[in-house]
Design brief:
Length: about 260
C-alpha cells in the first residue's frame, strides 16, 4: 500500500479482482502553517488479500494486474493535491479525480517544506538553537543539529552568481552519508555571508547548476526547497542542502491551477 488509511469501500470486479477506496489524511505546510486534508485513494482491479478495515503504508495488501489503476479523489480542490499533481484532474459525479503524483517518493514533496519568510532568520534560529543546547566540551569537526519541523524549509532568495564547484568538506560528506546515503551527491555551492561566526552554504546536487543557468536570471527571486543540517566547525560553515528550486511560489502555482481547473 502506498498510504495508510481506512478502507471505506470494496467492490468485486472480475474473478478475484477487487477495487477499494482508502480514506487517507495528509499533513502539509501552507503559508508556513500546518494544514491537513482528506482524500480517498482508489486502487482498482487488483487481487486484494488484506483483512480488516485499515491498511498501513508499505504493507502488502495484494497483487496487481495489467488492468490495475490508481487514482485519488476529493470533493474539493485541496491545495495539497493542486500543488503536487502532474496532470489536470477530472470532475465526475461530485468528485475531482487526481493523478496522485505525490505518492512517488522520487518527486519533490513541495508542501512538506515549511514556508519561511527569511533565509537569514532561519539560519540564525538554527545557530541559536545549537548554541543554546550544545555541549561546550564537544570538540568534533562537525555537529548535525537537524529538526525537520524547523529546518526543512522553502525560502525565497536571490542569487548574484551561479553556483561554483563545491569545496568537499568532512561535514558535507558526513551530511550526505547520514541523510542521503550518497557521498558525492552535492557538487556545487553558493555561499551566503551574513556577518555571523558561521557562513551558511547552499549545496546543490549534480545538474542543478546547469538547470539554473538555463532557467534562472540572476538577481530575480528564486524559491529554494532545502534542509539546514550541520554545523561545520572546522570551516565555520553551516551545511544547507538543496532538494529543488522553483521560479514560482507554491501559493502562486496553487492559485493558477485552481483557476484553470475550475474553468
Amino acid at each position: 500500500s502506498p498510504v495508510s488509511g481506512r478502507v471505506v469501500a470494496e467492490k468485486i470486479e472480475t474473478g478475484d479482482e477487487k477495487s477499494i477506496l482508502v480514506l487517507c489524511r495528509q499533513a502539509y505546510y501552507l503559508g508556513g502553517k500546518e494544514e491537513s486534508c482528506e482524500y480517498e485513494l482508489l486502487l482498482k482491479n487488483f487481487k486484494y488479500d488484506a483483512k480488516g478495515g485499515t491498511v498501513e503504508r508499505e504493507a502488502a495488501i495484494g497483487t496487481i494486474a495489467a488492468t490495475t489503476r490508481l487514482a485519488a479523489r476529493s470533493r474539493v480542490l485541496d491545495p495539497y493535491m493542486l500543488r503536487n499533481t502532474t496532470a489536470k484532474p477530472v470532475f465526475k459525479d461530485g468528485f475531482w479525480y487526481f493523478f496522485p503524483a505525490w505518492l512517488d517518493p522520487s518527486r519533490l514533496q513541495a508542501l512538506s517544506f515549511r514556508q519561511v519568510g527569511s533565509f537569514e532568520a532561519a539560519v540564525a534560529d538554527f545557530y541559536v538553537r545549537w548554541a543554546r543546547e550544545d555541549e561546550k566540551d564537544d570538540q568534533s569537526f562537525a555537529t548535525i543539529h537537524y529538526f525537520p519541523e524547523l529546518d526543512r524549509i522553502r525560502v525565497k532568495i536571490k542569487l548574484d552568481a551561479y553556483p561554483v564547484p563545491a569545496n568537499r568538506t568532512q561535514a558535507l560528506g558526513m551530511t550526505e552519508l547520514n541523510f542521503y546515503r550518497n557521498p558525492g551527491l552535492f557538487v556545487s555551492e553558493s555561499r551566503f555571508p551574513m556577518g555571523g561566526t558561521y557562513v551558511p552554504i547552499l549545496y546543490w546536487q549534480k545538474g542543478f547548476k546547469e538547470y539554473l543557468e538555463k532557467e534562472y536570471v540572476l538577481g530575480n527571486e528564486l524559491y529554494v526547497y532545502c534542509s539546514i543540517y550541520t554545523l561545520d566547525h572546522a570551516n565555520k560553515a553551516i551545511v544547507v542542502c538543496v532538494r529543488d528550486f522553483a521560479l514560482k511560489s507554491d501559493e502562486d502555482v496553487i492559485a493558477e491551477r485552481k483557476k484553470d481547473f475550475e474553468k
